[in-house]
Structure formats: structure tokens, C-alpha cells
Amino acid sequence: MFTKSRQIDMTNGPILEKLLKFSIPLILSSLLQLLFNAADIIVVGRFAGDNSLAAVGSTGSLINLLVNLFMGLSIGTNVVVANYFGAGNSKQIKASIHTAILLSILSGIILTLIGIPLAKPILTLMKSPEEVLNLAALYLRIYFAGMTATMIYNFGSAILRAKGDTQRPLFILFISGILNVILNLIFVICFKMDVSGVALATIISQCLAAILVIIILIKEKDDFHLDLRKLKINMPIFIKIVKVGIPAGFQGIMFSFSNIIIQSSINSFGPTLIAGNSAACNLEGFVYTSMNGFSQGALTFCSQNYGAHKIKRIKKVVWESQLSIIVIGSLLSTIFLIFRRQLLGFYTTSPQVIEAGIARMWVIFSTYFLCGMMDSMASSIRGIGHSLPPVIMSMLGACVFRIIWLMTIFQIDRFHTPFIIFLSYPISWILTFTAQLIYFLIHIKKLEANNDLLAEIR
Predict the structure, then answer these.
(1) Tens digits of per-residue pLDDT, 80-121?
(2) In terms of Cα–Cα distance, which of 406, 379, 407, 384 is closest to 394?
(3) Are 104 and 74 in contact (CB under 8 A)?
(4) Distance between CA 122 and CA 128 in Å, rounded?
(5) Rounded to an integer, what distance in angstroms lies between the CA atom of residue 131 and that of residue 53?
(6) Parts of the chain with a pLDDT under 50
(7) How far, CA to CA in Å, does 352 sit from each of 173, 178, 219, 240, 365?
(8) What is the distance between the alpha carbons of residues 294 and 300, in angstroms, rounded to a whole number?
(9) Which pLDDT score is estimated for 61?
(10) Which pLDDT score is estimated for 332?
């Protein structure tokens, strides 16, 4: 497992076949992660109660807010390494890998130092109900204590994806996820540790994932070999990673910030809606990650072809990834809507919580493919070296719009309902995707007209 090459030549040959080969293991990895996360919520909901379920579920937006900036750096790592891999630049690949791993360690330490003290104050600002607040704060503090391991795994996986290897990250998630589920059952059911048991199980499994990805990179025999003695920050490469990663992370922060505003609005309706919303959000993750696998494929494929100066192939990558997202997003959303009650029943036995979850599912799953199209287009633009424009478009089309929506339409008495909150999502997806598509079409024509612009990545 540790020595066999799993590289994918993304610059030649049929695109869809290789896109599927790349994306399917990535989708399976994400689905496994979600199944294991769902196990967290199911165990808490079944054996600790609705308040504990609401506590764990309500932390997602805050975790994303604090983590997304650094996760953006892992995206920057993927783009930079894939560019150099497509260009065949062995020396820069090696330097990028050692820079990225050290950067992941530093990122994890910073997140721990930020997340632990800020957990409760931010949850308070989010108007978390009193019966949920202390449980949610405890969960977050333990969760952020293990953030270094989480960062190492994500940066390491980004490095492997840069050459097309999505199979071994799948293996890592499977092993660490099984451990997570076992520890969940032991800590919550046997030891009655409630949300602290779920959080502890998560960070232990993430430590295992980090160890495995480091072992894989150490055992590599090609340019992707990691030598822990050579860990250092290469400033030119660091700047390139930051140039791509910070805007990508900032985009995630903007989405998370708008989602925190939305979560605060949802919190105002009480624990029942919070719990139902949390369960529905967890189900959404299964569809989202299936679409996101193709978004990540578009990012890496575009990055490699950008490094290889193959502009026409980039266009084909974009259209085939968009088509794949429409198909998979629509299919899965339909299935989830058909079995909505049964699926929500895994999380809770409360009829009121189930009804609250269904209210969100109807709005989101009916239009969810639009979210996948938006993310894939942003990834494609980022893959050709333009990380800032997707941020600006996302900030205006999604984040700013959602905040304005909640501050205006939602404040009207007859529109002060959960449905109006949920409706802000599909409208923002349409606005953002439209702007991204226009930008991509204009810029790709410029690249075709002047291929020399690709030299800026070197």
C-alpha cells in the first residue's frame, strides 16, 4: 500500500474516466467521514438526549469559521503541488511537500490556541440556548485540542491528491473512522461521557489518521517522499501557497460567517429546530461531499493542466465536472427526499425534531445541485491561478446576500419563519454561480488568446 504508485496523468487521455478514477475514492472518503460523524451525532442523540444532539450539531458553523482559513492553505498546497507536478518540476515538488507539512503543524497549534479560549464566548454571541451552551463549549474545547492532527491529515491528503492519489486517504479514513465509532460507543454508552466522549473519540481517531498519512509520505519513493529532518518553510513556495490558500480560506470563512448568522437565527426558534436542523445538515453532507469530490477533481485537474499549458483541456474538465455534479447531486437529493423520515429517524425519535428537519430538507435538497455547481466553478477558477475572484463573488453573491436577507426579509413578521431562512441558500447559489460562470468564460478566452500568461505559475 505504501510503495505502489497511484499517480494519474491528468494532462493526457480521456478526462471523464480519469475524473471518475480520481473523484470516486475521494467521494467514498468523504462519505465515510460523514458516516463516522453521523455516528457521533446518532450516538449522542440516542444515548445522551436532544440537548446533547443540539450541542454537537450547533458547533459546526463555528468550527468551520475557525478552521476554514487554514484549510484554505491545504487547498493552496494542492494547487501548488499539482502545478509543479503537471510541469514536471521535481525540485519544487519536494520543497512544496516539506513546506506544507511544517505549515500544517503550525496551523494546528495556532487553531488550538485560538479555539479553546474563544469557544464559549463565540457560542454566547451566537445565542446558543442556556441548556445547550455549556455542552457545546465543552465539545469544542476538546475538539480544538486535537487540531494539529487534523491539519496534518488534511495537508497530507492534499499532497497525495495533487498527483491523483485518492485511494490511500480513503484507506486512512476507513481505519481511523472505525476507531472513532468504537470509541464513541465506549465513551458515551459505557462511560457516560456525553459530548466529551464524542469529542475525545474524534481527536484520537484524527491522531491515527495523521500518523498514517505521515508514514505514507515517508515511505514514498518518488518526488513525494517526506524526510522529517528536512522540514522547513521555503518562502517563495510558502508565498504561492498563501496566495492561493488565504483567499480560498477566506471564502470558507465568509460562508461560515454567514452560516453562523443563519445558525443564530435558527437558535432563536429553540432546541427543537436546532436539533432538527442539525440532523438535516448532517444528511446534506452526504450529498455535498459527493458533489465536492468532482469539485476537488476540477481543482486538481485544472491545476495540472494549467501547469502543462493545456487550456482547451481545462475547458473540457470544467464542463465534464459540472455535468457530473448535476447528475450525482440531483440523483442523491431525490433519494434523500424520498426516504427523509427514515433517515432523520436515525438521529432522533422525537416527531417534532423530525418535522423540523424535513422543513429544511425540502428547500435544500430540491436545489442542492446548484451548490455543487457553484463550488466546482470556484475550484476551476482557483485551479487556473485565480484565487481572489471566487472569494469576492462568493462574499457578495452568497455571504453578503444572506446577511442582508436575514436583516431585511426575515425581519418582516409574516416572513419570520424557518422557511425564509432556508430559502436564502438556493438564491445565493444561483447568484454566485452566475457571476463565476461569466468570469470563467471571459478569462478562459484570454488564456486561449495569450498562452504566455500560464508562465506566471512558474
Answers:
(1) 999 899 888 999 999 999 999 999 999 999 999 999 998 889
(2) 379
(3) yes
(4) 9
(5) 11
(6) 1-5, 453-458
(7) 34, 31, 52, 50, 20
(8) 10
(9) 67
(10) 94
Q: What pLDDT does 455 receive?
A: 47
Q: Determine the pLDDT at residue 457.
A: 46
CA 278 to chain centre: 17
pLDDT at 127: 74
Q: What kind and span of H or E run contains 115? A: helix 90-125
C-alpha cell at 425: 441558500
pTM: 0.77
Q: Confirm if 83 and 303 have CB atoms less than 8 A apart.
A: yes
- What separation in angstroms does the CA of 449 have from each of 64, 258, 328, 384? 39, 38, 34, 15
The cell for 424 is: 436564502
Q: How many CB atoms lie within 10 A of CB 257?
A: 18
Q: Which residues contact 232 (CB under 8 A, 6 or more apart)?
A: 98, 99, 102
- CB 57, CB 41: distance < 8 Å: yes
Q: Say how many C-beta atoms besides its own lie within 10 A of residue 395's C-beta.
A: 19
Distance CA(14)–CA(10), nearest Å, equals 9
Cell of 47: 444515548
